[in-house]
Amino acid sequence: MPPMPFISLTDRQPTPAPVSCSNCALGRFTIYGATAQGDPNAVNTRRREVLNFPAGRIFLREGKVQKQVYTLYSGWAFRYVTLSDGRRQIFQLHLPGDMLAQESLLMPGIQLPFSVRSLTPVTLCAFDVAEAVGLIHHSQEQEDRSRAEMRRFFAGLHRRLADIGRRSALGRLAQLLIETEQRLLLRGLSQNSTFLFPVSQEHIADMLGLTTVYVNRTLDRLRKQKIITFDRKIMRILDSGRLYEIAEEE
Amino acid sequence: MPPMPFISLTDRQPTPAPVSCSNCALGRFTIYGATAQGDPNAVNTRRREVLNFPAGRIFLREGKVQKQVYTLYSGWAFRYVTLSDGRRQIFQLHLPGDMLAQESLLMPGIQLPFSVRSLTPVTLCAFDVAEAVGLIHHSQEQEDRSRAEMRRFFAGLHRRLADIGRRSALGRLAQLLIETEQRLLLRGLSQNSTFLFPVSQEHIADMLGLTTVYVNRTLDRLRKQKIITFDRKIMRILDSGRLYEIAEEE
DNA sequence: CGGGTGTTTGATTTATGTCAATACTAGTGG
DNA sequence: CCACTAGTATTGACATAAATCAAACACCCG
């Protein structure tokens, strides 16, 4: 089934929260996707509340134990830590459909080793941890799906570590673009290798362990080689073959 | 209870595998530690086999799905990936008492995103995944303990990522030494801030995202400042106050 | 005792960081 | 619709941490 985009590429307004999970276009892409499609009411019943935050808001804090988890219904967020002198490392971008604080499902009682901040205005659907676990154990298919999601996340964390440890700035950037495009594609948020990428160069720097200035210059190299285009938050991959080569070799 | 060392600091011979888990001095430090102490027979019954490997052997391979998990009974190992051109990133050191491939317990069916190789000769105790899960669910205390272990591991992965992304070589090295000493201390494998650290400078480089030569020079800085001593694989922390400062600030 | 692996050191290069100035963009309020 | 501001992006000149290359050295093991 080809995924349908549920917001326009250039639409920067927050998508209004759905009244009911029954007509939520996003549900199928979530960790409880099977249930969301087969029995949307089961999801609706367990949803505790719908939250809205403006851009730049810290809404999950390092060290806290989560009683709830959240589906990112619309908008982008990221998980990160800040060192004592202000240096920041971003661990992951969260895209619409992601489950935030999902590790609380696997490791109940975990103190989050990161904070989460919104990158754009976001809408979240909240579930109690126990309810979310119930949702996941709803069916075999469901369990498989959510496990697959956890594994993807886990693998991604390792990949990022290897990237920062062992790849050049150019290689890291290429990896990031490829990974992001793939994740967005699955949700119908990338079309013709073009997608909204609402991050500043400082965010990219903090994801890749680089400096803002150097990210700028590295983006420039990709632009000059006509491998990408990136303007007003719209990223377009022009030469994905070359991008893959760079990701692999650099 | 002050942990008792179960091998001598300078003993480089592999500790013989215990015939029975009942007299295993290591059990209490494992992920199933509560059971190992309260009902060692429950552990013994489930143990499938005891494996021995020489140093430098790859015994878990990236991409494989694990039907078994292993307690590292003696020796050291590490998990890593190799990029296509040979660059290597080490994700974690495994010390005696660690459960190898433990993510298979949380995420059954996961393809390992890394390989595992022995650093010294190792002895492993093997358990089927299902049996190990059973062991863990043996009691509440047990579940709590094993969860705590998972969380520690998870937090450590994030910490390492932030270190490599945002700290200098000196800071990374300090972090590594502190973390390692703490982990060893819990198992009684560090005394008077002194422990066996059977890694080459190349291993350190591959853990920290550096070069062998530069690791050598960075170790040298710590030596010259009389913060550590490191000779014939014996690491001694002389000035832990200073080491903590460096870990935090650099 | 000889060879191989791991360590140390020096000289040099390079990728990336730092500092600082200028330009652009998206909003804001009038 | 314009002027103003605050954040971003871009650019240049320069500094430096870390990599590279290459040559001793040391140590361990059989």
What does this structure look like?
The structure is a homodimer of 250-residue chains. The first copy, chain A, is of the alpha+beta class. Helix content of chain A is 40%, strand content 21%. The first copy, chain A, is built from nine helices and eleven strands. The first copy, chain A, has a four-stranded antiparallel sheet with strand order 1-8-3-6. Chain A has a four-stranded antiparallel sheet with strand order 2-7-4-5. In chain A, a hairpin with a 5-residue loop joins strand 4 and strand 5 (88-94). In chain A, helix 7 packs across helix 8 (212-224). Chain A is globular and about 50 Å long. The two termini of chain A are 35 Å apart. The model of chain A is unreliable at 1-14 (pLDDT under 50). The structure holds a DNA duplex (30 and 30 nucleotides).
- Could you tell me the radius of gyration of chain A in angstroms? 18 Å
Distance between the termini of chain A: 35 Å
Largest sheet of chain A: 4 strands, antiparallel
Shape of chain A: globular
Strand order of the largest sheet of chain A: 1-8-3-6
Protein chain pair with the most extensive contact, residues per chain = A-B, 37 and 37 residues
SS elements, strand count of chain A: 11
Oligomeric state of the chains? homodimer
Strand content of chain A: 15-25%
Query: What structural class do the secondary elements of chain A suggest?
Result: alpha+beta
Helical residues, percent of chain A: 40-55%
Low-confidence parts of chain A, pLDDT < 50 over ≥5 residues?
A: 1-14
- Give average pLDDT of chain A, whole number: 88
H/E element sequence of chain A: HHEEEEEEHEEHHHEHHEEH
Total number of helical segments of chain A? 9
